[in-house]
């Protein structure tokens, strides 16, 4: 199963694109969405605690709580950033974090770095694939940033790196029972992120009754199901992958699937993506799958 992490990563990427696509039509307020996805998910998962053996590592729970905090900061940044600087700036966060996740992980796990130094050609090729993915995503999404947006970007990017590296790290700490680890990881991170988002929402003196407005609640089940499925699937994929950057590279290609879908579906309204960019993305991702799949 270990060598098939990339199949799950592709499913995850398509899942993310359908989620983003659906939200374009539903238009649930971002602040509501974060509370539903967090607290709503935790409430749905909580009754099942009896079926999952606890993980015996304190560090596992500490990382899950830290992850929930960083998630809520990161999601807020991306949401508010899109309002302040436009979506083109926020679409830079994901691609730029890919290579950094790769480097971070290797520094945290020096024995894996050692493995790479024994095969410098492979290391260079993997890095070239990561940069190819980054570059093609930036070109396809026409992501641009100005000076003002850079500090915002840096924080969003740091959150992104922390989330993916920690996600993989928790699967190491919980490997005694990976099914339980995936369950508790999703439950704890959702609960912490949702609680912080709810506190932030109420702190802004927004009416609590808006949170349970029927128009938004109608769709809450969709976002909660997505959060549970996404949390479980991503954590298991991270468990299987040699390096969390490989999963990030494939998952973060989700805007491209949306763009391709739009340009096929509405050829008059949407501009076609340059085929050479798509080629660069595909070659880079396929390269990662072949090069990255076999060291563990």
Mean pLDDT reading: 83
Question: What does the largest sheet look like?
Answer: none
Alpha carbon gap, first and last residue = 13 Å
Beta-strand segment tally: 0
What is shown here, in short?
By secondary structure, the chain is mainly α. Helix 7 packs across helix 9 and helix 8 packs antiparallel against helix 9. It is globular, with a radius of gyration of 19 Å.
What would your notes on this structure say?
Helices cover 79% and strands 0% of the residues. The chain contains twelve helices and no strands. The chain has helices spanning 5-26, 30-45, 58-85, 87-108, 110-117, 120-140, 147-173, 178-203, 214-240, 244-251, 254-265, 275-292. Helix 1 crosses helix 11 (254-265), helix 3 (58-85) runs antiparallel to helix 4 (87-108) and helix 7 (147-173) runs antiparallel to helix 8. The longest helix is centred in the first third of the chain and has 28 residues, at 58-85.
